[in-house]
TrEMBL record:
Keywords (A to Z) from UniProt: Disulfide bond, Immunoglobulin domain, Repeat, Signal
Domain of life: Eukaryota
Organism phylogeny: Eukaryota, Metazoa, Ecdysozoa, Arthropoda, Hexapoda
PROSITE patterns listed in its UniProt record: IG_LIKE
Signal peptide: 1-20
Entry's Gene Ontology cellular component terms: neuron projection
Protein name: Ig-like domain-containing protein
Annotated organism of origin: Cimex lectularius (Bed bug)
């Protein structure tokens, strides 16, 4: 004989959650006191790859079924997992654990009492991502002609959006400054004194700052004396 919750899960995957919530009880017993949440909805910021536990505790749940959903998708119903994503599981009752969190896990998670009263608790999740850098060109090798103009670009991604700082290895920048902020720097009237290793550092407070080197070579005209 199939578990009664099998039919519940089938129902949840057939109808939208608002329709299902109106009839979700575990049996015919009466509930003497209205169920209520003893935890509160919160905002969570978690680093990619970590494990997150979203709390949901209810008093006087009685015969009602507790749901976890995200948008229109039901993740759990009572103690049964509806989602096929094995990173999700229930721990210590109805708390929802998400392991190895990914950027796509960001958003609102709703713990809902299936009593038709639209009583729910909402947790908002933000996924923090360490900085990564993409240089242009990807090789990090640049060549400029003496007297010309060249732009060094460094694009960083992450959450929050990283700040970018330019510096020059073992030397000051051509402007005389030790460091400049921005995704690019432009060098004008280039000469051999501006050749060297330029460093782009991205930092957003998540993990360690990331630095990449860009080698700038300057081509100078060679003048031959007539013999």
């Amino acid at each position: 004989m199939k578990n009664p919750l099998f039919h519940l899960i089938l129902f949840l995957t057939t109808y939208d959650y608002s329709t299902a919530a109106a009839v979700l009880t575990r049996g015919n017993a009466l509930v003497t006191s209205a169920p209520r949440f003893t935890t509160r909805g919160q905002n969570y910021r978690v680093v990619i790859g970590d494990t997150l536990v979203l709390p949901c505790e209810v008093e006087n749940l009685g015969t009602y079924v507790l749901l976890w959903r995200r948008g229109a998708s039901v993740l759990t119903a009572d103690k049964m997992m509806v989602t096929r994503d094995t990173r999700f599981r229930l721990v210590d009752g109805f708390n929802l654990e998400i392991s190895d969190v990914m950027p796509q896990d960001a958003g609102d998670y709703v713990c809902q009492i299936g009593d038709g009263g639209n009583r729910d608790q909402i947790h908002t999740v933000e996924i923090l991502v360490p900085p990564s850098i993409r240089t242009s060109p990807a090789s990090g090798q640049l060549t400029a002609r003496k007297g010309g103009t060249i732009t060094l670009e460094c694009k960083a991604s992450g959450n929050p959006v990283p700040s970018i700082l330019w510096s020059r290895k073992d030397n000051s920048l051509p402007s005389g400054e030790k460091a400049l902020e921005g995704f690019s720097i432009t060098l004008e009237k280039v000469d051999r004194h501006q050749a060297g290793v330029y460093q782009c550092t991205a930092n957003n407070g998540v993990g360690d700052p990331v630095t990449v080197d860009m080698q700038l070579d300057v081509l100078c005209k060679i003048h031959y004396n007539n013999l």
